[in-house]
Amino acid sequence: MRTVVRLSTILLLGAGFLIPQDKPALSGLDPVLLIRGQETPGKPELEGRHAGFLYHFASVETQQAFRREPDRFGIQYEGSCGKMGTGSGKGSPERYWVHDGRIYVFASESCRNGFKGDPENFVEKPETAPPAGADSKRRGRELVEKAVAAHGGRDRIDGQRSYVEQSVTDAAGERQPSLRVSLHARLPGHYRRGTDYPNYGAYGEVVTPSEAATFGPKTRTPTGPLTRAVLQRGFERTPLEVLRARHRKDFQAWAVGETAFGVYFDGMVMNVELDPANSRVARMSHRGRAPGGKLGNLVVHFEDYRAVDGIWIAHRVRSEHNGAAAGAHTVKAFDVNGPVDSGLFEATAKP
């Protein structure tokens, strides 16, 4: 699933996440004391690094506290903008805000102000599967298998080795023209998506089971593990990826209606609704971000199914966030099990 994103966001993605910083973050303030409500300058001789950021500490005590819990005291989202979320544009380590004992940084002053005005609608929270009884879980698994059969059957879906999708996004006014998007996948776990911006070139992301990177026409920058996980989940929120995930050890399913079920795997929860007429996936929903960064109910509609080598693929996909349109794209070409260059997925290679 994807939504239309402004070019400025894609350009920021290319700025990179794991480039070590020589200048202390937070204007040199001690991050541990900052979280405790004190803006105290750190000392250059008491330093520490985490996720590419250099920190100074006011005392050995705060330095040791940071070393014990760097994810708690360090900048959140691996330095992504706190309003837009993990994997978005890079935030400035000098433009920060503390909320609920965590430090967030922002790409712009407007992003910081938006976050400060409504932080709970921008903060990402861990997801867990809700409690479900044995009958609900049994019925959930039955619905999953019913969807597998409707999309082409176990052999075709589980035996899929690769796919290439070429699509075009809907235009949304002069500031967001229609864009060409290429998606390459080599299964399991290797994905590459590039969006071609006229006069700028292609920007996107590469994800493998062990690493990830964002890229532009002349750059390719590795991400941190948190960003890699978020990018991977973005590729996994499609009907076929959800159905293939049923073999994972962490996969759970439960019924939420006659033709709907919930799933949990890879740290995310989704609701899946089947078309009663054919049992193919009609809608999937989860807690996701609108183009402006706000978290809410993101519903993705899958339409215009066509069979490609016996596998049913939605050729029209559109999204709604809290009931408002949030982007759409039309698949122009889809190839199953064809050759895919392995070099496309080398996260540390030059573009």
Number of structural units classed as domains: 2
Helix % is 10-25%
CATH class of the largest domain: Mainly Beta
Given the structure, what is the number of helices?
9
Principal-axes shape call: globular
CATH topology of the largest domain: outer membrane lipoprotein receptor (LolB), chain A
- The N- and C-terminal alpha carbons lie at a distance of 24 Å
Percent of residues in beta strands = 35-45%
Structural class: alpha+beta
Mean pLDDT: 91
Strand segment tally: 17
Task: Summarize the topology.
Blueprint: H1 7-13, H2 31-35, E1 43-50, E2 53-57, H3 60-68, H4 70-73, E3 92-99, E4 102-106, H5 109-117, H6 134-150, H7 154-158, E5 162-169, E6 180-186, E7 190-197, E8 201-207, E9 212-215, E10 220-222, H8 225-236, H9 239-244, E11 252-257, E12 260-265, E13 268-274, E14 281-289, E15 295-308, E16 311-321, E17 324-336
Antiparallel strand pairs: 1-2, 3-4, 5-6, 5-17, 6-7, 7-8, 8-9, 9-10, 11-12, 12-13, 13-14, 14-15, 15-16, 16-17
Any overview of this molecule?
The protein has 351 residues and is of the alpha+beta class. It folds into 2 domains: 7-121, no CATH class; 134-345, Lipoprotein localisation LolA/LolB/LppX (outer membrane lipoprotein receptor (LolB), chain A, Clam). The protein contains 9 helices and 17 strands. The strands form 3 sheets. Strands 10-9-8-7-6-5-17-16-15-14-13-12-11 form a 13-stranded antiparallel beta sheet. It has a two-stranded antiparallel ribbon with strand order 1-2. It has a two-stranded antiparallel sheet with strand order 3-4. The longest helix has 17 residues, at 134-150. It is globular and about 65 Å long. Residues 1-16 have low confidence and may be disordered.
